[in-house]
Amino acid sequence: MLYIACVLMGWLNVYAAVYSPEIQTNLFDMSTNAGKQLMWIGTTVLLIIAILVINYRFWDTFAFVIYGATILSLLLVLVAGSNINGSRSWFKFGGFSIQPAEFAKLATALALARYIDYPNVNLTKLKDQLWCAGIIALPAVLIIASNETGSMLVFASFIIMLYREGLPGVYPLIAIVIVTLFILTLIVPKLFLFGGILALGILVFFLTPRYQRSFQNVMVIGITAVAMIAIVAGVDFFVNSVLQKHQQNRIKVLINPAADPLGAGWNVTQAKIAIGSGRLQGKGFLEGTQTKLDFVPEQSTDFIFCTIGEEHGFIGSLIVVCLFVFLLCRIVLLAEKQRTRFARVYGYSVAGIIFFHLMINVGMTIGLMPVIGIPLPFFSYGGSSLWSFSILLFIFLKLDSRRVGMFTR
Amino acid sequence: MIENRKYIVIGVFCLVGLVYLLRLFYLQILDDSYSLESSSNSIKRIIEIPYRGQIYDRSGKFIVYNTPVYDLYVTPKKVQIADTAAFCRLMELERSEFDSIMNNAKSYSYVKPSLFLRQLSKEDFARIQDALVDYRGFEHVTSSMRTYPAHTLANALGYVSEISKKQLDEQETPYYRQGDYIGRSGLEQQYESVLRGQRGVKFVMQNVHQVVKGSWKNGAFDSLAVAGKNLYTGIDVEIQQYADTLMQNKVGSVVAIEPSTGQILAMVSAPTYDPNSLSSRFFSKSYAKLAKNPYKPLINRPVMASYRPGSTFKLIQAMVALQDGAVAPSSIFSHAGSPMKCHCNRSGRLNLAGAVQYSCNPYFYHVFRRLLYNNNERNTFKASAMGLHHWHDMVSKFGIGQKLGVDLPGELKGSLPDADYYNRMYGENHWKFSTVYSLSIGEGELLINPLKMANVAAIVANRGWFYTPHIVSGIGKPGEGIDPKYLEKHEVGIDPRHFEILAEGMQGAVEHGTTTMAANIPGITICGKTGTSQNKKGKDHSIFVAFAPRENPKIAIAVFVENAGWGGIAAASVASLVIEKYIKRRVDNHALDKKVKESNYLPAVTLPKKPAPKKYEMPKDSAAKPLIVKTIPQQPTPVPVEPKSLASRPVTTNGN
């Protein structure tokens, strides 16, 4: 039900986003994005039916096969793909394009679930951690190679699942610390940070009970502090040398959107204007001036949330965000109920992926995240993304239905 | 324990959701700056400027109308010019001008149209339009330009030009925008709110490339432009033009009023300029030239110049004295006892009418003396103060010393001193008649403008009342919509019978007076009075006020010719010719006509002091030569025409 609500709202919003007062387009006109989206929805329904029909064992059994096939297609797209917006990541079939990267998430989720499902796998062990990292890293590297950094970042979302499955809390903590340091470096002058880290280290040292001040622990504190300082020092190098120009700009814009409102800051500024101008109730369906008149770029794909914010206001945004949070919680709770580890791991992966998309996509339109071109699940225009999210979700539902079936039986 | 991590995961989901909702709440509800930016982003207000009202003369001839002109706009991104040199030839532009215009346009925007050439005439545009097919990136917008078919009345009409920064900042309700046109002086300024009409506003939505994507909310907030109202004036264009030609090579004014209505028939400010020169795309060049002209052709002298009325003021003195009972029509005063000399040689033989006819200074010295002392006060100081106070009240009714309220901007109040004025100047009870006697013949602290003097003529013509002089007699439709104050009759508080004595004297002055033979037109009984306005800076100014015919007057007129010297000849000649032209619709006195047109009273102009070149000494007399005024052809005879008999007389006194 939640799914249907999302897809329908997404479709109407795609229509609103491309709607132009000059050309009175039909909602079902195949030549527009909205029309195409309808077609995608239609095919998705077929896919869903297929998924529900296929035996649940299929996913379990063929997880690695699907993973392998996806890796192959990722390799293939590097050679044979067509170039859209500077990234060689699309297969073109006639008028439609398919992005294998979208399906890579699904395949990786299945493969991870399958791997963790092995009875002797223990994520506290370094060997298993490395295996998991490898399963995640392989498609991620291929996706970077095809210049889709945004989709690659999604693979970070598996950390949520891994955490649930027993990955030591240190890993997400390290990730959080790195991200925090990264952001702080861009905002706070470096000398303060250096001083702060040193002070923190000394503080931790003296707060540690005397009997625990073993050489080892002191070393851990020291190394952590040095590593943090190294990260801080390395941020500049990373931002200026590793990242591409547009990525640098996106990060700078996040810190200070007013710096270049007509250039790099344009997307974010216009997106914020669009959402901000929606006020409480919004301008009404098809009345959005910002999104309809192309002030917001990519308004039917990555910036679809602007259309919601502008035309339906805070109420609309509230409903959408709550819908997603509710969906996520529901998936997590369902996953917890699964009997098999495979189903649970897979459920958490699905929740993680959707959560990550939601966080980045909505976050960038409201100026809380850097602009990363990933779609809003079920809302954004695009066949690959709708297909992959639908498959992602319905495989989980299929796995879940088996559990329900077992109960009823 | 590890199962509890699900709560952490759910907690993270909810936390992020909550943070986002808070952020959305802030963006959408608390911070309204985005909402404003959105509308300025995508909704554009397009102003439709209506046609400005046109101006007609009393017979329905156009004084001002709108000519369609074409503004050419350029969109730099679309520009395709194969041969720039040929294009410049077509546009009649220098290559450098073309470059600077294009650079300006580019720095403004590549995709938005900028003004390329302004106000191309129909003919120019027709020529360009055909050739323009070969060039991309140019488009035209029709607008209108003020056109003055009669080439006259420039000073009273004023002009229209781009609104100044100051005016933009000072407007009470934001109506004008940068680059808008506004009436900047004269009628164009006075009637700006009527002439400009009502703007139309259209809201359109435009996309990110400024391409219009249709009307906003189906035009629910749009309004249509309403054209400005036409003005119908009392101006007689033929008379105005004729008076213009008479005033060439002179500095001064002609104001003619229809006494029965107060409508202004002609209002010449000389030197003048062709109003069309301030209406073309060469506005700034023309304006700069006019502003630099030492004869100040841009000011409207009939209302903005101040003179001493001189002997013309004797008319008022006579009326006030008769009404006050200070003198009787038969009163006779000799020259004796007066510090002022006289040219009339009729000491002790003139009654009031005669004194007006011959403009006897000593007579009016006595008249004014009687006026001031015409009370019970024995103390001459106190009596003078009382008398002057009373006199001030009576004279004020003629509009002297205050704004008449003509429908033109910049009218000067002039000056009519009262007792307080002299108290401040000399101290209370420290002045008396003998201190202020020069007022008796219109000198001293008196200041009037030509319009007021014409109004005085109208008052005498009407035998005691006037309508406030005005140019516009109808707004929108002839005879309708004007300020009711112009339809209000003002009585000056003088018994009508007194005017016959005055008219007698004025008729005599024209027909038999020593000075005004030039003003006598066969077949028309003109009543007139000359005057000399003392001028400390240079030659005296010549003044003449008149009305005609004596019975049932059709025209009242005041003519001021600056620096035409002592006596009323110069002004009287102009006035009589204008009267003849107005009443007979033709001029028979060709000799006078020719003489007036040829006479040149342009004063010598002292150039603004510049550091003189050190190489050679400037010849001292070089500054004394009249500077050539470009707007009016200079006649080769700079010698002022003045009757020898008068020029040779001593000019120590001021009556005539």
TrEMBL record, chain A:
One of the GO biological process terms: cell division
Source organism, top-level taxon: Bacteria
The UniProt record lists the keyword Transmembrane helix: yes
Listed GO CC annotations: cell division site; plasma membrane
InterPro entries listed in its UniProt record: Cell_cycle_FtsW-rel_CS, FtsW/RodA
Keywords: Cell shape, Membrane, Transmembrane, Transmembrane helix
Localization per Swiss-Prot or TrEMBL: Membrane
Gene Ontology molecular function: any one: lipid-linked peptidoglycan transporter activity
Pfam families in the cross-refs: FTSW_RODA_SPOVE (PF01098)
PANTHER family: CELL CYCLE PROTEIN (PTHR30474), PEPTIDOGLYCAN GLYCOSYLTRANSFERASE MRDB (PTHR30474:SF1)
UniProt name for this protein: Cell wall polymerase
Provenance organism: Larkinella rosea
From TrEMBL, chain B:
Major localization listed first in the record, in broad terms: membrane
InterPro entries linked to this entry: Beta-lactam/transpept (IPR050515), Beta-lactam/transpept-like (IPR012338), PBP_dimer (IPR005311), PBP_dimer_sf (IPR036138), PCN-bd_Tpept (IPR001460), Penicillin-binding_protein_2 (IPR017790)
GO MF annotation list: penicillin binding; peptidoglycan L,D-transpeptidase activity; serine-type D-Ala-D-Ala carboxypeptidase activity
Subcellular location, record wording: Cell membrane; Membrane
Gene Ontology terms describing biological process: cell wall organization; peptidoglycan biosynthetic process; proteolysis; regulation of cell shape
Domain Penicillin-binding protein transpeptidase residues, every copy: 252-576
PANTHER family: PEPTIDOGLYCAN D,D-TRANSPEPTIDASE (PTHR30627), PEPTIDOGLYCAN D,D-TRANSPEPTIDASE MRDA (PTHR30627:SF2)
Name assigned to this protein: Penicillin-binding protein 2
Source organism (scientific name): Larkinella rosea
Gene encoding the protein: mrdA
